[in-house]
Specification:
single chain, 211 residues, Rossmann fold, alpha/beta, 8-stranded mixed beta sheet
């Protein structure tokens, strides 16, 4: 079986806009699949259990749900993947210790030419063909898992609350605390206006991959 082109869509923090960006990319790559990675733990996460807690789904082995029947839920991230045209969706539910094994098992299920993976910590264990890091243009905190994988990131995408096609998006980012970080400032920076450039870059990476 041909190895799929693997594109990572990661984020500096939760709520960075990475699901929206991934869906925009899915629309440009018909036939491609998507993987959603959710890390959980065997205790309450302290947030709304209906929104984020997956402790009851964890097992001794990584849990992978694939196909529309197991992963489609209106408004949820995996449901949005389907609505954006994903050929298949895989939801990986793991503990921190299961991430490495889990992502390898999930990738083994991919049948399409390419796959978009929404997650961050998995980059510690896997080399991808292209890794895009999404952040809010106004700055904020970089979670430790994102900081650890910046060296594997090829580009930064600025998501703006006002509308990420806002011409002031880049200016807002340059005024934030993120912009002074050496590992961040060295990365190419995109906004939604540059989406065609990102798509072209992924197409080039995919075309260059060995058959």
């Amino acid at each position: 079986m041909t190895t799929p082109t693997i594109i990572a869509v990661s984020g500096f923090s939760s709520g960075s806009g990475k699901t929206t960006v991934l869906c925009d990319l899915l629309r440009a790559f018909p036939g491609w699949e998507a993987i959603k990675i959710t890390r959980g733990h065997y205790r309450s996460c302290g947030k709304d259990p209906e929104a984020c807690c997956v402790s009851h789904l964890l097992s001794a082995e990584p849990v992978i749900r694939s196909g529309r029947a197991q992963t489609y839920a209106p408004g949820k991230d995996t449901g949005r993947y389907w609505d954006a045209g994903a050929a298949n969706v895989h939801w990986l539910i793991v503990t921190t210790e299961q991430v490495e094994r889990g992502i390898k098992l999930a990738l083994n299920r991919v049948q399409g030419a390419g796959v978009f993976v929404e997650g961050t910590s998995f980059l510690k264990y896997l080399d991808t063909d292209f890794a895009l890091m999404v952040t809010r243009s106004g700055g904020g905190k970089i979670k430790p898992s994102a900081r650890q994988v910046l060296a594997k990131t090829q580009a930064l995408y600025l998501f703006d609350d006002v509308g990420d096609d806002n011409p002031n998006t880049l200016a807002r980012f340059k005024e934030s605390s993120f912009a002074d970080s050496g590992s961040v400032s060295a990365l190419p920076i995109y906004t939604s206006r540059d989406l065609p450039k990102i798509i072209a870059r992924i197409q080039a990476v995919h075309s260059a991959a060995p058959a």
